[in-house]
Amino acid sequence: MIIPKNLEELATYVDKGQNVFFFTADWCGDCRFIKPALPEIEADFPQYKFIEVDRDKYIDVAAKWNIFGIPSLVVIKDGKELGRLVNKDRKTKAEIEDFLNSL
């Protein structure tokens, strides 16, 4: 999981590559629930880079991307959105993998 140090670094992942943006926050219980499964999900989908986006640190990005519930995932390839799993519900490993397989 890549954790960008600033907005400029985060922007580089939007513009180039095939990336999964994982919106999260320290206080989010559902985010903490799925986090232990993320290394396995990353291993199952090596075609993607996984980028952790702290919703509180990047609140303007979250608002611009209509991220009003976390944990949420947005997949972008070379600046074009391929799909999103955005809601406030708890996500399971199977649900995330089904979503990524559907793209």
UniProtKB/TrEMBL annotation:
InterPro entries: Thioredoxin-like_sf (IPR036249), Thioredoxin_domain (IPR013766), Thioredoxin_H-type-like (IPR050620)
Ranges for domain Thioredoxin: 1-103
Pfam families cross-referenced by the UniProt entry: Thioredoxin
UniProt cross-references to Gene3D superfamilies, sorted A to Z: Glutaredoxin
Domain of life: Bacteria
PANTHER family xrefs: THIOREDOXIN, THIOREDOXIN-1-RELATED
UniProt-recorded name of the protein: Thioredoxin
